[in-house]
Amino acid sequence: MMFTSFFSNKPDGLGLGLHVCRTIVTSRGGGIRVQNGKTGGAILQCNLPLTGGSKP
To answer: For the chain, first and last CA: distance in Å?
Structure first.
């Protein structure tokens, strides 16, 4: 649900941030991983290839 566009838990949020990030990263051949932090919060890991993927 975190990457669903237009989903926000903020009263005035647009809910596009993570969706846009994922779109950009995957279009470049990368990926995003999210997991719960051991002591709370979340860990967001973004991986991008050194070469390859789509070209702008």
So the answer is: 28
pLDDT tens figures, 11-56: 776 667 777 888 889 998 999 888 888 998 888 899 999 875 555 5
Residue 19 is assigned to a structural domain of this protein: yes
Distance CA 11, CA 35 (A): 24
Residue type, 25: V
Q: Please state, in angstroms and rounded to a whole number, the distance separating the CA atoms of residues 30 and 46.
A: 7
Residue 32, domain extent: 1-51
Contact present, 8 and 15 (Cβ < 8 Å):
yes
The DSSP symbol for 55 reads: -
How many domains in the chain? 1
